Amino acid sequence: MNQDQERLEDQSFIGPNTRDRVGLVLVALACIVGMMFALSNVGYLLGFNATTLFLSSISFTVLGSGILMYPEKKTTEEQMRYVPLALIPIGARFLLNHQLFSNLTGSLQAADITGLAQIGYIFEVIGLWILVAVSEEGFRATVMMVTSQILPDSWEYQHLVSANILKGFIAITAWVWFHFYQRSFDLSAQLPYIAWLYLSGAVFTYTMEESSFGAAVLQHIVVNLTA
Q1: Which residues of 117-126 are buried (b: 16+ CB within 10 A; e: fewer)?
Q2: Which end of the chain lies in a sparser environment, N or C, as judged by fewer CB atoms within 10 Å?
Q3: Between the CA atoms of 196, 198, 201 and 206, what dihedral angle is there, to the nearest 10 degrees?
Q4: Quick check: bond before 192 cis, omega within 30?
């Protein structure tokens, strides 16, 4: 086996020598949770949504593998240093609506469950957020990969906007756009939410590029759990 082949194996996101162990574990969990919800909720909206997220998680993880496998030099410990950046979108959301943790608390109260059942419900919520985070981060990684093929890194928009920034903006915009496929769109009413999505997407994308896919997904999960 030549050196180039050995190097590619070391960089492989899904291989035994992957550098992004955090990402690999989270993708595996997303697949397990996706199958669980898809099979246990056949014929219901949750089942359909879980199936969609399950398939998109797998598809975008494969398609965006060029983003997912780098930077090569980041260790698991270095990846974890970027997770606290999740405080940026969390703080922004708090300033925008002053209802931190209210959605999760309200869901638990509405379910009217206690004891072990409540613990099980919490794990289901966490599992769903893992599935959502893997799917959405994989989606943006894929958009960036496709855009990279069209727009090389050496390109500059009139020497004002770097190619990397433009690719990130395109990926975040596509990600924001898909947030409104199952909900009504009212720019005047949802402008703060859209601004928060762009800010959050910028943080996640920065982490993905500077650290790893796994660190970005973990950030995303932390932010979602505080929704």
Answers
A1: eeeeeeeebb
A2: N
A3: -110
A4: no
Contact 69, 19 (CB under 8 A): yes
Q: How many CA atoms lie within 13 A of 86 on its CB side?
A: 19
Amino acid identity for residue 170 in this structure: I
Backbone angles phi, psi at 156, to 5 degrees: -130, 140
DSSP string, 75-104: -HHHHHTTGGGGHHHHHHHHHHHS-TTHHH
Longest dimension (CA), the chain: 61
Q: For residue 162, give the 3-state DSSP assignment.
A: strand
Contacts of 31 (CB under 8 A, 6+ apart): 54, 57, 58
Q: Take residue 195 and report the two structure tokens written for it.
A: 């601004």
* Assessment of whether the complete model's pTM goes beyond 0.70: no
Per-residue pLDDT of the chain in tens (227 residues, 90 and over written 9)? 444 444 444 444 544 455 677 777 788 788 888 888 888 888 888 888 888 888 888 777 776 665 554 445 566 777 777 777 877 887 777 766 654 445 545 554 555 556 667 777 778 888 888 888 988 888 888 888 878 777 766 666 655 677 778 888 999 999 998 888 777 778 778 888 899 999 999 999 998 888 888 889 899 998 888 87
- Distance, CA of 152 to CA of 156 (rounded, Å): 9
